[in-house]
User: Fold this.
Amino acid sequence: HRIRIKYMTQIKSRPPTFSLFGYQVTSLPESYKHYLINGLNHDFGLSSPRLLLRNIANPYDKKPKRESHKK
Assistant:
């Protein structure tokens, strides 16, 4: 499975804490986590925001099996 980011939201203001939601986000490389944190610092002037990673369950992972009509 590949990493797919769905959205990010700020969950706390003191200290600034953001939660990142998506598929396989716990597998994000450290370099990409630093890229996101540096972007938040630059764009919003935040000092050392925290980034929490949350996986979203994929609703298509466990498709119900179709019943066979063979007798």
